[in-house]
Write a structure and sequence with these properties.
The structure is a homodimer of 277-residue chains. Chain A has one domain: Alpha/Beta hydrolase fold, catalytic domain (Rossmann fold), CATH 3.40.50.1820. Chain A has 9 helices and 9 strands. A 9-stranded mixed beta sheet of chain A has the order 1-2-3-5-4-6-7-8-9, sandwiched between helices. In chain A, helix 6 packs parallel to helix 8. The longest helix of chain A has 19 residues. The first copy, chain A, is globular and about 50 Å long. Chains A and B meet through strand 1 and helix 9 of A and strand 1 and helix 9 of B.
Chain lengths: 277, 277
């Protein structure tokens, strides 16, 4: 593991690190905010998964999360959204290939050799973090924005017991039925849709739900509402009687101005779960 | 005036606008955060001047200021740092020309036709803002980072009565004696150093001081300490018995991780002054 940078930030440290990923077969970069409390022992962890076109850097610089994480003594992990490098397959479209890993393990060429983001986020990166930093991996929460909200929700429901709480900002909720989803799941997983369901938050909610609290914020003026389909997940949550708070926020769009506005609430929500019991 | 974008943000609106500037003879862009309170009448204004290489956008996305401004019902103005456009003179160095206006009125060619940032910030932009937005121009404060801290301090001391409070993050304090200053003041104002003194916060502090409170934060691990020279202004403040708080912050560098960390304190500091009396 290589240290790219470390900056003092809200009494703790905002670091950027890279490492050779065995899942993705390339050098991967991630951001990690450690609060001051990490100097004295392991702290709880909140994962933040980013959206289309993002790297590890977007949320780290624009989501205004570190101040609230410092207040609650929580670490923040900011992974990249896809494998990177000259020999990694890509597409001209912004929503396929680099910057658009969709948090799945690709089974199809040309994506298969590198696009194993599910394994990277679910297994490889947590193991690396646990080995190298003062993190309490028994206390993890997960959140994300847009494609990252999709990742957070699908990881949380597929890995019961792993995360105590899950939240999302304007998540892609029903990729099997959206142009943000069908194209990518076809490319990465193939045309047989039976393999898609574990990567669709709405279908997962209908099938199994989440064993903890959920918080979702969605801007009512989001320019991508037709692709995000909040109504699909919202309905599934209500049908299941899933413990959840779903907030439709009037006036807000899809930008980081929306994300940063409600970050305080999301970090506090996770802190409640991470410090309970 | 043209609206580039408006995003809901912390209950208010983060806007970006452009206009033909008569001072700079080019199209200029600025950011303006208006808190919810601006819907009911004029609100106080806090100016944020940015540093070298920045545009109107850096602080707007990375300084995490809007949340605190919303809490105090204060507007934030984010001007650009120089004139822009294909016919505007530039230099290959990052610290001269575009992105490096240094908040002066150039008297020398090739800079003179466009680089009139002092007039732009002191006169033209305030008049435009007063005409178009619900801002209480009797209640203004000013802050900035690095070159923008230099701008904030020099504007505040040269325009007594204009700003109720001034603060700065890692300001260039003594440009007459620094490589961040001598090069630019020579280029923009000419070799006669007598014209430089109104653009040197340390000299201004010795000569006249500021008729209100000052807050300055400086990171002790700032990679540019030799250029910023905090000791020069610090000494001048103490000699003058100027009302001021100067904080040397252990561990912090020159980045926006430093700026965002202490933004809450700066906005609260200005709010105290803006709502007093």
């Amino acid at each position: 593991m290589k240290t790219i940078s470390e900056n003092a930030c809200f009494g703790g440290t905002q670091g950027v690190y890279s490492h050779q990923s065995s899942s993705c077969n390339c050098e991967m970069t991630f951001g990690l905010f450690l609060p001051e409390e990490a100097q004295n022992g392991p702290v709880p962890v909140l994962w933040y998964l980013s959206g289309l076109t993002c790297t590890h850097e977007n949320a780290m610089t624009k989501a205004a999360a570190q101040g609230w994480a410092a207040e609650h003594g929580i670490a923040l992990v900011f992974p990249d959204t896809s494998p990177r490098g000259d020999d990694v397959a890509d597409d001209e479209a912004y929503d396929l290939g680099k910057g658009a890993g969709f948090y799945v393990n690709a089974t199809q060429d040309p994506w298969k050799p590198h696009f194993q983001m599910w394994d990277y986020i679910a297994d490889e990166l947590p193991a690396l973090l646990a080995e190298n930093f003062a993190l309490d991996m028994e206390r993890q929460g997960i959140t994300g924005h847009s494609m990252g909200g999709h990742g957070a929700l699908t990881l949380a429901m597929n890995l019961p017991g792993r995360y105590r709480s899950v939240s999302a900002f304007a998540p892609i909720t029903n990729p099997s039925a959206s142009d943000w989803g069908r194209k990518q799941l076809t490319a990465y997983l193939g045309e047989d849709e039976s393999g898609w369901s574990k990567h669709d938050a709405t279908l997962l909610m209908a099938e199994k739900g989440f064993d903890g609290p959920i918080l979702i914020d969605q801007g009512a003026n989001d320019q991508f509402l037709d692709l995000l389909k909040p109504e699909a997940l919202s309905e599934a949550i209500a049908k299941r009687r899933q413990q959840a708070i779903f907030r439709m926020q009037p006036g807000y769009d899809h930008s980081y101005f929306f994300v940063s506005t409600f970050m305080e609430d999301h970090v506090a929500f996770h802190a409640d779960a991470l410090y309970a019991g």
